[in-house]
Every structure is written in C-alpha cells, then in structure tokens.
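Sequence in, structure out.
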Amino acid sequence: MLSRVAESIFWMARYVERTNGMLRLVRTSYVSSQDEIVDFDWQYILRNYSNQPESTIKELTSSNQVLAHLILDKENSNSVINNITHARENARAVQDHITKEVWQCLNEFYHLVRSENAEYQVLRGDAMSIMDDLIKQGLLYHGIVDITMARGEGSSFLSLGKYIERVNISSDTLAIKLSEVEFNVNSPLEVPALRYLLYTLSGYELFLKTHRENLKPDLVFNQILYNPNFPHSLTYGLERMSRYLNRLKADSLPEAFKSVEFLTGKLINHLKYTAVDIHDVNSLRVVLEDVRRGLFEITDAFNQHYFGNS
C-alpha cells in the first residue's frame, strides 16, 4: 500500500474517533451544566479543544456559545465541523481503498454538521437533539466500517488510527474531569464528577454491573486505566494497537515494524507495571502525561517509517 494512502486512512479514522470522543464529552458536560445550580465551568474543556487565545475563551460565558465554538466554529481548528471536514478530505483521497458505504456515511456526517438545522439547534433550539444525531452518525460509521471494510492493510491502518486516538481521548477526558475537581477525588461530594466521567466514556453501565456498590475513585480509575474488557480503557486500546500492528508485520520493512512495535510494547508495559496511587495527585498526572507522550512517539514513528514524513 502506498504511504500516502495508508496515511490518509489512518488520519481519517483518527479524526472520526476524535469527533466521537469530543461529542460525548461535550454532551455529558452540557447535561451536567443543566443539573448544576451554579454556573458550569467550561474552561477546562475549552483549553483542551480550542485553539483560540485565553482572552477569547473567557468571553464564551453561556453554554450555547461554548457549544457553537466547539461544534460549529470553523475558526476553531479543533471543532467538530473541522474534524469531520478533515476526515472527509482524507476519505475523498482514498475512495478506491474504502467502501462506498464508508464514503457515503462520512459525506452524510459532513452535511449533517454543516446543515442549517445543526446551527439552529445549537444556537437557539434543542442542542441535545443535534448532539445526539451527530453521535448516532458516528456510531453508524463504526458499524459500517466493521461490516463493509475488507480486513487488509487499509483496515489495519484504520484500526490503528482509531485506537491511538481513542486512548488519547480517554486519557484527555480523565485529565479534564480530574482538573474540574482539582484532582480532589476522595470527597463524597465528587461522586457526580465520577459518574459523569463514566457517562462520557460509555462506561457507567459496565461499572454498575461489575461493582454493585457506590462509586469509588479507585474502582472508577481501575476500569478506565486497566479493564481489558472496557472498550474505552487505556489497556484495551493499547492492546488493540498491538494486535493491528502485528497484522502489518508481513507487509512492513523490518526496521519500520520494529521501531513502532518497540514503542507500543514500551507504552503497554509502562502502563501495566506503573503503580498508580489515586490518592497522589502527581501519580495520576504523571501516568496520563506518560501515556500521551508515548502516543505522540508512536504517531511520530508511523510518520517517519510508514508515511514517509521525516
């Protein structure tokens, strides 16, 4: 497979996964903002998903303004509309290597987020309805990819992009939610924050089925960091990265494969054997920073060895 084709498929998957994760976080935060008596603080999310200066971010005071900036603002390079546009552009470049159903789904996603109805619902209507529609379109994309894409090189690069981004999103989401409570996770008052964290990562039902007790920080973090059966845990995502990387081995140059394999294995083992003390603020921060740094190194290795970008 040509390096430019592999790169486009890889980034198509990353942009869609980034969009899905961002939408879940924004939706859950919006619900939380409606439940709280005091004004909800969007600043932590904006700092993570906005490229605008601090002065501009502080001017976004209402939830509708924030949603418009995060979902519809073309000036915000991290907005949903820009992510979907980038995903569609990458898909257009490799239409011969993806199924027509995947292309049509991304095209529908693109037109949905650009529609007049989306703008109206975010600014003046029912913001929840358009966010739900966008999230459903993302779920539809995953289903279509799963049942229509042949399991070849293209599928492997697509899955690698998806899981690299998913691990990144899970670590970012955990960091954002912890920042909102200033990493003070040991107070009973912060149980709602833990519940919304699990909602964001679609892990609340699994938690209740696994632990028939009140939300406890150590159990919540254990699920997000280590549960091998939770699709949004860091361990699950890293193991899937390793699985799909191994499928590329036969078609890869030995040096290229070994470089990425080493970094992936290093990150898996680092997470597995690092003792995380949830009562220690720095312990939580460090492990999340290490994971994100490791993902950056893996992406850089793909750029250098597989995509021809020095």
